[in-house]
Amino acid sequence: MINTGIYNYIDVLDKGADAAWTRNEVLSNNIANVDTPGYKRKDVAFNAYLEEALIGVGTLDDRITKINTRLEEINCSVYTDNVNLSYRIDGNNVDISTENVYLAENQIRYNALVDSMNQEFSRIRTALGQ
């Protein structure tokens, strides 16, 4: 995290990209364990935490500035999903088709976040005349 207001959006985008990267690892682990008896799928919670932090009055710039003062408190968390649900007799609740859709969706999200960060840096470079 960079301690200046010029990078506020980049810091929030970076935090989101970190969460997307973590979710990619978790989803890949679910896919790897599709045939493991008793394995329960895991997922990552982050978007709700960020949305909650964004709620408030004022402009988006004001809210982003406010979030950046406590950005280290907004973290993703890994949780076990549908602990009591099983698709098979062996107790596993991973559906490979669903996991592949989530993985593709998450990869698109990650790429969009990285692209947004690159655009922010490009704007800064333009403003600096470089």
Characterise this structure.
With 130 residues, this protein is mainly α. The protein has one domain (5-128). Helices cover 58% and strands 6% of the residues. It has four helices and two strands; from the N terminus they run αβααβα. The protein has helices at 8-32, 47-54, 60-68, 96-128, and strands at 42-45, 77-80. A two-stranded antiparallel sheet has the order 1-2. The longest helix has 33 residues, at 96-128. The model has no long low-confidence stretch (mean pLDDT 87).
Short summary:
This protein is mainly alpha-helical.
What low-confidence regions span 5 or more consecutive residues with pLDDT below 50? none
Question: What's the shape?
Answer: elongated
* Helix-strand sequence: HEHHEH
- Main structural class: mainly alpha
Estimated radius of gyration = 18 Å
Helical amount among residues, as a percent range?
55-70%
Features:
single chain, elongated, mainly alpha, two-stranded antiparallel ribbon, 130 residues
What is the topology?
Elements: H1 8-32, E1 42-45, H2 47-54, H3 60-68, E2 77-80, H4 96-128
Antiparallel strand pairs: 1-2
